[in-house]
């Protein structure tokens, strides 16, 4: 076949593959990777509550860990992730709970890996290594050390072991939620349940001096009530196994096995277990997967509808139903946003709200039932504007929580919001349009200030395990360039230089095989190759060297066609950072990004 024929064949195959991934209702749920970290924490939580009652799922989970230990003796967050100290410590700790399995060899191999990483198995050294990995952010360092203490990996003396678990000021959760940004909590915004439960557990195991002891004793009644109020109907905080497991084991270890949160969390953990004995990192990303899929199917210049009208209308109605119409109990977020999932554990966030706005723009254009003016879009645009930080950037969940890295403004989130704003600019009320223009100016200034000297941008939510700093400038740069492509240089001349430097960075970091990895000299992946092609196609008319960009798109497309075996094979890569240095991959990512990239490449190369 000619190159054009190969491209068309690959587009058709990939599109059909994506459409086949829909659930019985007609939208997408995706499939998150199984996680060693989730499996270890779930097993520890169940054991802490009742080792006899939950013996079967605990044993199945531990056997899965044994079967999926890396050759080097450690564990990564997914089965294709490099070993890391956090997950390896949790899995090693979980294996210490087993009385039914032969764990001598797996534990010995794990100890060798941990010794090589830390230098010894000294409990102080372990505590120091975990704290060093996360710095001042205690969101994950404290739960990991708590799990090690519960499992006896920080010594046989429980009181001494718990002293290595840094205290968390759980009493601060008794204050009004609007004070949290001022209080500068030592955990990120989403981790309020962990702050309360683990802080209380540490207080029970290591009693402080008299005045603080009285204060925390009095605060527990109020903070315990907060813990229940923000607990979703599903039983899973954020639908996340690790967070729910950490809260459960903390409460159970502190004499709170009958706590209402534990009683709801256990069914969630049992229901989340997969047939092979493992647990995923989260239940699903249904809303995110669906908005990605809609945008991918609508990419390029193909005039055909993304789906037959009744099917696209069903998706449109479902997506509109996922918008939050009330203040959210978890983050106190006002109405107007979307979460990543349609389940009750979701929390509205910037990326999913922007994604929903862009997908609704596509679906509305194909729907005869779409109103001329959309109140839900106006509410979502206002929600994003109200989230914008003083620096002009967009954070994930909460405005002003800038004390820790997770809560900072981020280029990828900011770029996504800019795309949503400009896409709806002409269909919103004049007063809101004026706010959007100002928000765009602030957002562009933020992107200008955060562009690295080499022309790249560093995202928050996605990383690459092949880079020493585990960042993913390919993802960040591609996402910003997709936003900048929508701006007219006559109206926004300040972004011309930004765009040129970003394009040049992508061109210079293309691998000899035509693909892209997360950054310089990293292996090409389907995900990152597709994202880079998408960004270059969107900016092909803006670049100084048009011919060079077209050649890059052509070789990149050939690489993508090869990697996907002409749109029929989509092995995922672990490019996701979820929470603090917690990896995952998602089945839908390589498919949706391939569909979008090849659609646009066909238009750019024709």
Q: Summed up, what is this model?
A:
This protein is mostly helical and 606 residues long. It has two domains: 3-31 and 284-605, Glycosyltransferase (Alpha/alpha barrel); 35-280, Alpha/alpha barrel (Glycosyltransferase).
Explain this structure.
By secondary structure, the chain is mainly α. The protein folds into two domains: 351 residues, Alpha/alpha barrel (Glycosyltransferase), CATH 1.50.10.20; 246 residues, Glycosyltransferase. Helices cover 54% and strands 1% of the residues. It is built from 24 helices and four strands. It has a two-stranded antiparallel sheet. The protein has a two-stranded antiparallel ribbon with strand order 3-4. Helix 18 packs parallel to helix 20. The model has no long low-confidence stretch (mean pLDDT 91).
The helix-strand sequence is HEHHHHHHHHHHHHEHHHHHHHHHHEEH
Helix content: 40-55%
- The total beta strand count reads 4
Gyration radius over CA: 24 Å
CATH architecture of the largest domain: Alpha/alpha barrel
Give the overall average pLDDT: 91
Oligomer: single chain
Largest sheet: 2 strands, antiparallel
Number of helices: 24
Key traits:
single chain; 606 residues; mainly alpha; Glycosyltransferase; 2 domains; two-stranded antiparallel sheet; two-stranded antiparallel ribbon
Sequence-ordered SSE layout with sheet pairings:
Elements: H1 3-20, E1 34-35, H2 36-49, H3 55-67, H4 85-95, H5 104-118, H6 123-134, H7 138-150, H8 158-163, H9 180-183, H10 192-205, H11 210-229, H12 241-253, H13 260-272, E2 279-280, H14 286-297, H15 309-321, H16 350-365, H17 375-387, H18 411-424, H19 430-450, H20 473-484, H21 496-508, H22 526-538, H23 546-563, E3 576-577, E4 583-584, H24 588-605
Antiparallel strand pairs: 1-2, 3-4
Helix pairs in contact: 1-24, 2-3, 2-4, 2-12, 4-5, 4-7, 6-7, 7-10, 7-12, 10-11, 10-12, 12-13, 14-16, 14-24, 15-16, 16-17, 16-18, 17-19, 18-19, 18-20, 20-21, 20-22, 22-23, 22-24, 23-24
């Amino acid at each position: 076949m000619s190159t054009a024929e190969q491209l068309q064949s690959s587009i058709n195959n990939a599109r059909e593959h994506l459409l086949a991934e829909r659930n019985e209702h007609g939208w997408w749920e995706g499939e998150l990777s199984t996680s060693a970290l989730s499996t270890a924490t779930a097993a520890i939580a169940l054991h802490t509550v009742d080792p006899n009652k939950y013996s079967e799922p605990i044993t199945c989970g531990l056997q899965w860990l044994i079967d999926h230990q890396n050759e080097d003796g450690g564990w990564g967050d997914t089965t294709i992730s490099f070993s890391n100290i956090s997950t390896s410590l949790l899995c090693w700790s979980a294996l210490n709970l087993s009385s039914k399995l032969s764990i001598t060899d797996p534990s010995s191999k794990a100890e060798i890996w941990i010794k090589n990483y830390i230098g010894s198995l000294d409990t102080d050294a372990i505590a120091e290594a975990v704290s060093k990995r996360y710095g001042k952010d205690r969101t994950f360092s404290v739960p990991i050390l708590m799990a090690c203490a519960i499992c006896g990996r920080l010594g046989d003396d429980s009181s001494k072991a718990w002293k290595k678990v840094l205290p968390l000021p759980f009493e601060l959760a008794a204050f009004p939620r609007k004070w949290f940004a001022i209080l500068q909590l030592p955990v990120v915004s989403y981790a309020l349940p962990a702050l309360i439960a683990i802080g209380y557990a540490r207080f029970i195991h290591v009693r402080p001096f008299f005045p603080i002891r009285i204060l925390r004793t009095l605060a527990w009644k109020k903070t315990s009530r907060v813990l229940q109020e923000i607990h979703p109907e599903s039983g899973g905080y954020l639908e996340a196994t690790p967070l729910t497991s950490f809260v459960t084991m903390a409460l159970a270890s502190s004499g709170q096995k009958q706590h209402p949160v534990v009683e709801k969390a256990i069914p969630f953990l049992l229901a989340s277990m997969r047939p092979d004995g493992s647990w995923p990192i989260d239940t699903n990303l249904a809303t995110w997967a669906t908005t990605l899929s809609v945008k991918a199917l609508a990419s390029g210049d193909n005039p055909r509808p993304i789906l037959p009208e009744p099917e696209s209308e069903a998706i449109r109605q479902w997506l509109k139903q996922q918008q939050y119409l009330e203040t959210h109990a978890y983050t106190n977020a006002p109405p107007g946003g979307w979460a990543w999932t349609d389940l009750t554990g979701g929390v509205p966030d910037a990326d999913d709200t922007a994604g929903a706005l862009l997908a609704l723009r596509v679906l509305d254009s194909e729907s005869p039932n779409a109103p001329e003016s959309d109140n839900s879009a106006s509410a979502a645009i206002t929600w994003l504007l109200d989230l914008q930080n003083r620096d002009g950037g967009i954070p994930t969940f909460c405005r002003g929580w800038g004390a820790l890295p997770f809560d900072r403004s981020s280029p990828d989130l900011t770029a996504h919001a800019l795309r949503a704003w400009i896409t709806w600019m002409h269909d919103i009320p004049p007063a809101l349009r004026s706010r959007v223009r100002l928000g765009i100016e602030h957002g562009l200034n933020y992107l200008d200030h955060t562009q690295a000297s080499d022309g790249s941008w560093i995202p928050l939510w996605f990383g690459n395990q092949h880079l020493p700093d585990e960042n993913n400038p390919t993802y960040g740069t591609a996402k910003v360039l997709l936003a900048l492509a929508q701006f007219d240089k006559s109206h926004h001349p300040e972004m011309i230089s930004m765009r040129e430097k970003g394009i040049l960075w992508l061109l210079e970091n293309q691998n000899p095989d035509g693909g892209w990895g997360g950054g310089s000299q990293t292996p090409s992946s389907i995900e990152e190759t597709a994202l880079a092609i998408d960004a270059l196609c969107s900016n092909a008319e803006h670049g100084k060297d048009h011919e060079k960009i077209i050649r890059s798109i052509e070789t990149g497309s050939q690489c993508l066609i090869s990697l996907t075996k002409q749109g029929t094979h989509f092995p995922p890569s672990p490019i996701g950072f979820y929470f603090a240095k917690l990896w995952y991959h998602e089945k839908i990512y390589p498919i949706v990004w391939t569909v979008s990239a090849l659609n646009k490449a066909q238009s750019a190369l024709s």
